[in-house]
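job 3f2a | input accepted
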Amino acid sequence: MPSVRPGLGFAGFVYRRCYGYWSCVFQRFIRFLINRCLINTSVTFGVKRVALTEPQQTRWFRGERVAWVSPVSLEELVLLKSTHPQAPLVLGNTALGPEMKFRGAVHPLLISPSRVAPLFEVTHAPQGVWVGAGLSLTQVQMVLEARVEALPQEKTELYRALLHQLRALAGQQIRNVASLGGNIVSALPNSDLNPVLAAGGCRLRVASDGEEVPLDQDFFRGFRTTLLGAADVLVAVFVPETRPGEFVRAFRQAPRKENALATVTTGMRVVLGPGAVVRDVQLYYGGVGPCTLRAARTGQALLGRPWGEAMLQEAYSVLLEEVVLPPGAVGGKVGFRRSLTLSLLFKFYLEVQQALALMGVQNTTQQGVQSTTQQGVQSTTPEGVQNTTQQGEVSGSQSEQDAVGRPVMHRSAPAQATGEAVYVDDTPPPQGELFLALVTSTRPHASILGVDVSAALRLPGVLDVVTHADIPGHKARSFMGYEEELLADKEVLSVCLSVCLSVCLSVPAGLVEVGWCTQLWCPVPLQDAVQRESFFLPRRRIERGDVCKGLETADHVHSGELRLGGQEHFYMEPQSVLVVPVGEETEFHVYVSSQAPTITQAVAETLGVPSNRVTCHVKRLGGAFGGKVTKTSILAAITAVAAWKTGRAVRCVLERGEDMLITGARHPVLGRYQVGFMEDGRITAADLQYYANAGNTVDESPLVSQMVLHMDNAYNIPNLRGRAVACRTNLPSNTAFRGFGVPQAAAVVESMITDVALCLARPAHQIREVNMYRGLSVTHYGMRFDPENLWRCWEEVKGRVGLGPRLEALRSFNQDHRWRKRGAALIPIKYGVAFSEAFLNQAAALVHVYKDGSVLVSHGGAEMGQGIHTKMQQVVSRELGVPSSQVYVSETSTASVPNSCPSAASYGTDANGMAVRDACQKLYKRLEPIRTKNPKGSWDSWTRAAFLEKISLSATGFFRYTVCPDCYMDWEKMEGQPYSYFTYGACYSEVELDCLTGDYRTLRTDIVVDVGQSINPSIDIGQVEGAFLQGLGLYTLEQLSFSPGGLLYSRGPSQYKIPAVCDVPLSFNVHLLPDSNNPHAIYSSKGIGEPVLFLGSSVFYAIKDAVSAARAESGLGGAFPLDSPATPERACLACATPFSQRVPVSEPGSFTPWALNI
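job 3f2a | predicted structure (1158 res):
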């Protein structure tokens, strides 16, 4: 990582979803690009224009619906625009492309000005530079960087401000093609460049009349509209140099540091005369109205005033009156955005003040300002990422062919890095293949009056429409005792519930009219469901000790709550299925991206055929995280109905937006708690209540409500009561997600612990230590365990980070910095591994050995990126004594291994590894007579001899968890042993928070995790890194936004932000606990896929620690609420700075919010 990041700008926003092989894939990907000369690491990305020697001619391309023209002269371009004023100009296609793809925009004519030379010229003028409007943003960046290098600093204020914005605008690939002119005339309300260009006094050259147009407040007329007419062509932009005494700054706040649309942007310019008196000032904002906004009255209030605090106080009042957002404004975050207008003005003031100090300009009104306010405004975080890992070592006596315990690269990494890996949608189309389009509801709760398919059937390419009546077998799928319709018949219970299906010849498109009755009552927010007791059964409850007495005898009693938002799975491969009728005896092959092939095989029930007629094939999944079990089975079932009805292969691959709309997410949870504790920090009693937002159907929500099993996390609370229930709301049904309730349950407990620490004014890690399990222990449900390895992880993390000195340095930093605060958190995890439903703890495998000695393995586990196939190769390598290169795992298929259990609960390797081992041991035993006859023979010679002696070289293996007692949970008695064992870990994270904007950076993360004896340390460490980043996203970044009517706003990567490389901690250190053993799993290993995700909460609690330090500056102490995710908005408002406190708060219920709190 340290050697890659500085040279590759594009890598800064590579998305991070947890694949166990992430590190090796990424590094191999970089090497591949460099070796194939796709990246020149010695130069910056740029585009070189090559002069053509032959005369250029206008090119026309005409299709059935759209024509494309490429003129070669400016005169011809102007003529085309005057003749076709509604035809858009297309260069990078970064704005028009998404509109056409996702919003259905249709343009009969597209004009490409990429060969019109004047649009790409750069002309240096005496007081600035004319930049061609067609230049890409990368080229503009290169031009400005050259000007900064060539000119004195005082002349480059505007250039440096623009560069500041350009480096954070979108991503490198977008900047390589997006044009400067397109960025300007798109006139996005939250444009990064327009406020800076306007504040800097830039001018535009327009071709239609040759005049120059000032880029000022009059240029922006409204939402995405400007002064330019439909026939106008923007040719060039004049960017002036600055003068002595002129200062220009640009600021932006965005949900993520890179590749994210800004929440608020600013461009600010001030000209100071003698005595630092304001002679001119321009303040422009983006993101606080329908277009770029000039704060003219605020600027007027600053004119003629000395540059000082008194001037600012008046400016704040005027600015609040001038920049007004209604409480239900589009985009939400109204209080945050209004607060940012003030705090970013304050930042501008401080940076100008600092520049004056560096210039030696004395301002008598500012004595002492630097020591009290200016320090801690600019980031002090270092650049670059440091990543260290510690892996175990294999025994010196271990055979070189034995791959177990070695850091073997993920077997699919090369194919995935080069794009050769095959996923469902890469499967070649069968003859006569059709495509499926889902027709979904537009109401959160309504009755269906009728479905009119006549208009759809008249559309070209639409062959048929499948409705509820067409399903030949079971029309619903049963989950947890509840029925879920495959296609809605009489009633819909959420937006985007499938009503019917259009079957098409090509890319899905259809028009089906659905008649609705008047919308019925629907509880969409979680609190509505709680008030009306709209619950799915069963409700779960566990109690130990006497909670009431424990609360009565406590020195202190505190009540609080934590709201945790949902989380989109955002797997790289969306839901995908291809159903192929074989054509004989109603046999079907289903190629599917599913982590539960046997559950998907229930397609047979839908078609009314035996299961032996349906074969499910799973080659690999591009991620799943729990989201490809129940939802995938329903999608496969309705696709199969279409294939059955038409007699042809049908493919259904959801678009990213469709996937996010339909398939649900992690359960949002409201956690409430009451805790009694003593003066020394010991917790005597706790009462916790969890409400999970299940959505409109039950799905697997009752299993998530078993989160009360994890409400102790690592703490021995003598009197503990927990209750949990899944709430029925009219949102898309939520489903399983990595961790399955643990991230929510444990986060609420840690919030309670943190509140205790805040109430006692003590460090939170001390409260945790006082209450952690010690010695042989018993959980609140009666399971015995030894927490020794939990304490080993805890103490090792403390030792590696030097906890005492680090916390002291942190306190010192916070004393010296008013507007930047650092926080830290040390969090433990005790995570139960295995299914609490005992029948799921089984697995089977089939191993073939061929005459040439090669080995083919089939098992019930699905390869989702977690490396299960690689680990199975290692198991075979050890058991048969062959190199891993001779072992191959082709796919997971119900024809090879029937009745498999889902790959989930971090139990895939445990169960399937034992099954593969069982099969291999059978084979090895069969070969014993051959080995005895020829002890010095090779593996190949033994297998050939076995064939000649008619010894079977194929064996099945089976595993079932047989420890007494088996995994179980008796909810009536509130006791049981629901897990096979516990995986332990501890994590320290440290952050630096900008109190003025809520932006934070994770400075350091140290993780020590107990994985037993790792089968593959490289993959396990990759799992740890990926799980932590996914947890960091859950608790600090990823936010689902729903409209009041239940429609998901945050569809796709532009609205929903998952962690990227820019979110990786600057120092990221992962260590596997040495000398750990686990008798309950294969080769003494432990499941690691899920446990570490919760440790991402360490960043959340580090942010809360930093917020606490900021609140102390405002005289606020004690416990305070901070909901998850701790977005910049929530962190900034929780800091309670003077700026956020100036913003008036609207009364809840007095307006309709833009988005719901789900």
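job 3f2a | The radius of gyration is 31 Å.
job 3f2a | closed
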